[in-house]
Specification:
heterodimer, A: 134 residues, mainly beta, Immunoglobulin-like, 5-stranded mixed beta sheet, 1 helix, B: 220 residues, 4-stranded antiparallel beta sheet, 0% helix, 53% strand, elongated
Amino acid sequence: MKRSLALLLLLGACVPEVQRRVELYPMTGAPPARTLRLITRDDKHAIEVNAGVAFAVTISDNCPPAGNATPTPPTLVIADPTVLESRGLSRSPAQREWVLFAKKSGRTTLEVTAQCTKQVYEVEVTTPMGAPQH
Amino acid sequence: MRWVLSVFLLVVGCGSSGGGRPNGGVTVGNGGKPQCGALGIACIGQKLDAPIALGSTVDLDLRYQIAGTSGPPTVVESADPTVLRVKGGAHLEAVGAGASAILFVGPDKAVLDFIHLWVQPPTELRVVRYTPQGTPLGKVLPSFKLLVKDEILVAVEPYANGQPLLGNFELQRKLQGTSVAIVPDSISGWYRIVARSPGTTEINFVALGLSAPLTVEVEP
């Protein structure tokens, strides 16, 4: 009996804790000769995009259901909106689809906050190769 | 999850008062395949099938066909105003070489769709002859002959390395000689070169920092 109890406790301790995540997934790509990289790895969350490029993203998270409560939609906060700006998509009633557009060269951060977790993306907006510097 | 909405956003070009593709390349209802935005819910009736010439303008006339609603109020925004600047509603100015997204923004700043437009410096100003029905016949030779009372319909269009460019722009026309007259057509962007009397006339169309000289010899 004691052995069984100890085994159960040991198994319980081995069940991995669910890592809560919120991430962006691209819905559209860049036009020809322009760059858009949305990096979503354990060790790096980043967006590399050329100035002038707009792209749509959807926000996905694994937060537990809110039960009877109304789920809080995720939010996007961009540290420097003169570099990258975000707008909601009109067709997204769950407010999980956004359009991001790169306005000028520079670096900033984009923080995605879901009900149970948040994720910061490092953003780098660059001038495309061969393009004149404005 | 993608919503299938029957949303069609039509963008129709207004006519130019100077040079450029005649009537801004309006193609709504001509059977051409519509060009759609990146989200596939906004389709464009205007021929935006080429880069816009640097220094020129494009006027967008926004129209919607959305099931269950009329077209919502829309604001046009440019992602990179150093490439395309929006002035006065849907008037785009090509101010820098490159590409920029143009966003169609509805009420409460929600984006309906977006499209990327390119701006390129023109390398050639080309005089193109058209039939009265608007079919392009080809490039007008730098030197040609007409008979008195002949007339040809032409448009002056920018090109970059052989590729036609879009856009409206101010066009100057200079004449040396009186044997021909240049009459602006009722359709914006077209001009009639009319042979009036025997002689030789030098025509020079100037726009966007380029010129297109023509020598017209009129025979009796």
